[in-house]
């Protein structure tokens, strides 16, 4: 009787262990595949590198170093969750934009996540931005931005559609995350904290995992429910109106005929605006 009882207990224990192991494996597969039959690959691209420090001239903190650190942390978080992870660079080397795109496009059932930090001549500029280009990339951008902007103590600058090279040329869902301004004293201090960079990596990873939970329609709120993350509204910066361009040219011609009478404050504001426009592009190149 005692032997039979021990045998029953042992059998139940084995069955329970097998069930838990299969359940754990299924959960990991579900998180990494998003419902597909095979695990997805996450291609992580740390911006800049090598001779390209990133940012703007005279910037104290090298963007390439901060971006690489977050990218490596993101790799570890995703790998521990069962994702297959590929890095466009894992050391301080320069990889041309075409090379980054080629790496991304060599994988099917994959997503591309580009890590950057922002910079501008105005130290007051701050916040988190997430960029995408193709329509298929919007859910990924929405999920990542929802988590990163929600978890960072910085302003939410929103999701933006823009034709950066690595976003236009990739054949898979692709996003570029601007993790804050290194030219802002407060956000620069955050970025220099290892715990903050780890937090950024974890929030980006949460966005990758939640990409299939994004709702189909735009929401007036950025608050997620238990079932879904709201599809984020975005600013389309891919087009410039021709009529606006003509008006700008006519205004320029008229102003050039007038006597120059600009004041110092106005000149300073113009320089600040030009610096902002430069910053929009330095985040990629």
Count of all domains = 2
As a percent range, the share of strand residues is 15-25%
Strand order of the largest sheet: 2-1-3-6-4-5-9
Ends distance: 76 Å
On the 0 to 100 scale, the average pLDDT is 78
Low-confidence stretches: 12-37, 219-227, 240-245, 252-285
Shape-level CATH architecture of the largest domain: 3-Layer(aba) Sandwich
Fraction of helical residues: 40-55%
- The ordered string of helix (H) and strand (E) elements is HEHEHEEHEHEHHEEEHH
Tell me about the largest β-sheet: 7 strands, mixed
Class by SSE composition:
alpha/beta
Multimerization state: single chain
DSSP, total strands = 9
CATH class of the largest domain: Alpha Beta
Number of helices: 9
Task: Offer a few descriptive terms.
285 residues, alpha/beta, Aminopeptidase, 7-stranded mixed sheet, two-stranded parallel sheet, 9 helices, 9 strands, 47% helix, 17% strand
Task: Describe this entry's structure for a reader.
The protein has helices spanning 2-33, 63-80, 97-105, 138-151, 165-168, 185-191, 194-209, 242-257, 264-282, and strands spanning 41-46, 84-87, 110-118, 128-132, 156-161, 174-181, 214-218, 229-231, 234-236. It has nine helices and nine strands. Mean pLDDT is 78; it is low at 12-37, 219-227, 240-245 and 252-285. With 285 residues, the protein is an alpha/beta fold. It has two domains: 1-32; 34-241 and 273-282, Zn-dependent exopeptidases (Aminopeptidase). The strands form two sheets. A seven-stranded mixed beta sheet has the order 2-1-3-6-4-5-9, sandwiched between helices. A two-stranded parallel sheet has the order 7-8. α2 (63-80) crosses α7 (194-209). Helices cover 47% and strands 17% of the residues.
């Amino acid at each position: 009787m005692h032997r039979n009882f021990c045998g029953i207990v042992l059998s139940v224990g084995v069955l329970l262990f097998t069930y838990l192991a299969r359940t754990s494996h299924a959960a990991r597969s579900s998180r990494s595949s998003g419902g597909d039959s095979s695990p997805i690959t996450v291609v992580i691209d740390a911006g800049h590198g090598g001779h390209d420090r990133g940012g703007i001239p005279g910037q104290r903190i090298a963007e390439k170093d901060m971006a690489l650190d977050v990218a490596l942390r993101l790799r570890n978080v995703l790998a521990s969750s069962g994702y297959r992870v590929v890095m466009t660079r894992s050391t301080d080397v320069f990889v041309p934009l075409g090379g980054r795109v080629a790496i991304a496009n060599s994988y099917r059932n994959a997503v591309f996540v580009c890590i950057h930090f922002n910079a501008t001549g105005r130290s007051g500029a701050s916040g988190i931005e997430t960029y995408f280009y193709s329509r298929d990339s919007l859910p990924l951008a929405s999920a990542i931005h929802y988590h990163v902007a929600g978890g960072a103590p910085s302003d939410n600058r929103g999701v933006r559609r823009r034709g950066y090279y690595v976003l236009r040329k990739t054949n898979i869902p692709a996003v570029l995350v601007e993790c804050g301004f290194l030219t802002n004293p407060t956000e620069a201090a955050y970025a220099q904290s290892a715990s903050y960079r780890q937090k950024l990596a974890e929030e980006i990873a949460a966005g990758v995992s939640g990409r299939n939970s994004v709702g189909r329609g735009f929401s007036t709120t950025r608050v997620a429910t238990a079932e879904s993350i709201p599809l984020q509204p975005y600013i389309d910066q891919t087009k410039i109106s021709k009529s606006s361009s003509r008006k700008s040219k006519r205004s320029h011609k008229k102003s050039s005929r007038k006597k120059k009478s600009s004041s110092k404050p106005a000149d300073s504001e113009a320089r600040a605006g030009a610096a902002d426009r430069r910053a929009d592009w330095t985040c990629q190149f």
